[in-house]
Design brief:
The chain has 393 residues and is mainly alpha-helical. The chain folds into 2 domains: 25-51 and 87-390, Glycosyltransferase, CATH 1.50.10.10; 52-86, no CATH class. The protein contains 16 helices and 6 strands. The chain has a two-stranded antiparallel sheet. It has a two-stranded antiparallel sheet with strand order 3-4. α5 (93-104) packs parallel to α16 (373-390), α9 runs antiparallel to α10 and α13 packs antiparallel against α14 (341-351). The chain starts with 24 loop residues before the first helix and ends with a helix.
């Protein structure tokens, strides 16, 4: 079967018929408009799950354990600690880049066209110059269980979301695109796979496949110097092969190899499947079998009915990024023929109650997490516009 053709749909037991009125494309578009206006009124600035090190106390946390403890305390606290800790709202390029792609999907509507261009220009203005020219970064220092990197260092996830948004909206000139292509290969590819940061040697499957999809896109769609497009395509193909080799027998992908990275969660699995499909389609690779196996595992083990699970086969845990990615993936699954649109509608209905931008109430616990532009509004906007495109009418 040619790459990009929908494989046969698996029939997981967790796809019941929706028990709510079906939403039309117009309904979903209205929700997207409502969410955009909520975030835009705040200039896409707000809290972020990983902004705990941006306040004065963060500068005093010099040890890894202190940094991780502070970051996790701010992220997980039921009450918002940011005002007391002097942590100010952030507008991140990752949020505006992600939202740019969402808006660009509706380019046929003049109001969405203008929104995509405006957000795309904001995002393009944050492209790095100097040592890491062409790439993007997070606007905060990051400390995780496996990595630490400062706000001055680019990372692959930010670069992918920002680059895709700017390319979708056409807000990068040829010189900026060339810098992106060269920077991607020079700083975020180690010869075998794409790395999360320039200094990381850890394989993270979702980031690797994001890099592969971006490299494949750049190789296909932009005028580049002789040989650069071939290098991008070759790097993308090798990266896809590395992550295909990392798929488990049950069809899942862990976050990464090794005991410290062996968990399987919903939104990273969604990123893997979406970017694997995108990269393989652009490269002409046949990934039908691993994609089918991955989708089957995703639908069976990372949903409880239409409600997404955070970790595979565990109790549901509400998280705005995971919930939004589930809607996005349900729309993608419907587009590819893995499920019907009823499942995507049911997933949206199951998760939309906590997003403040939709006027349906907010979570009483950890409200700031649900008001995050990068972690909540932007991914849900992307999911809504993608769902709009697959619904009849």
């Amino acid at each position: 079967m040619p790459s990009g053709t929908a494989p046969a749909a698996p029939s997981p037991p967790c796809l019941p018929a929706p028990d709510h009125p079906a939403r039309s494309a117009a309904d979903v578009l209205a929700l997207a408009d409502q969410l955009f206006q909520w975030a835009d009124a705040r200039t896409w600035a707000g809290p972020d799950p990983y902004d705990g090190l941006t306040g004065p106390l963060g500068r005093l946390a010099v040890h890894r354990v202190l940094r991780q403890g502070l970051l996790q305390a701010v992220k997980r606290s039921p009450a918002d600690l940011r005002p007391a800790l002097g942590i100010r709202p952030l507008r991140t390029a990752t949020a505006t880049g992600f939202a740019t792609s969402a808006c660009a999907r509706l380019f046929a509507f003049p109001v969405w066209h203008e929104r995509a261009l405006r957000l795309g220009r904001w995002t393009a203005a944050e492209q790095l110059s100097g040592r890491y020219a062409g790439l993007w970064r997070y606007e905060f220092d990051v400390q995780t269980r496996w990595s630490c990197y400062p706000a001055s260092v680019p990372n692959l996830v930010a670069t992918t979301f920002c680059a895709d948004g700017c390319l979708d909206a056409g807000t990068l000139g040829d010189e900026a695109v060339g810098a992106l292509a060269r920077g991607l290969l020079k700083h975020l590819h180690n010869g075998a796979f794409f790395t999360y940061t320039p200094t990381s040697g850890v394989l993270v499957h979702n980031a690797n496949l994001m890099g592969a999809a971006l490299a494949a896109r750049l190789a296909r769609t932009t005028p580049l110097p002789a040989g650069l497009a071939d290098r991008l395509a070759g790097a993308a193909r090798r990266a896809v092969e590395v992550s295909l080799a990392g798929q488990r027998p049950d069809g899942s992908w862990p976050y990464g190899p090794g005991p410290r990275l062996d968990w399987v969660d919903g939104f990273h699995t969604g990123y893997v499947l979406l970017r694997l499909d995108q990269a393989a389609t652009l490269l002409g690779m046949d990934v039908r079998t691993p994609l089918e196996r991955g989708v089957d595992h995703y639908l069976r083990h990372l949903f409880d009915g239409p409600l997404p699970r955070y970790f595979a086969d565990t109790r549901t845990r509400r998280d705005p990024n995971n919930d939004a990615t589930a809607v996005r993936m349900a729309a993608w699954a419907a587009e590819r023929g893995f499920t019907g649109t009823d499942f995507a509608r049911a997933t949206l209905a199951a998760v939309m109650d906590r997003y403040p931008g939709l006027g349906t109430g907010t979570s009483r616990r950890n409200r700031a997490l649900w008001e995050s532009p990068r972690w909540s509004a932007a991914p849900l906007l992307d999911a809504l516009t993608a769902l709009h495109d697959v619904l009849p009418g």
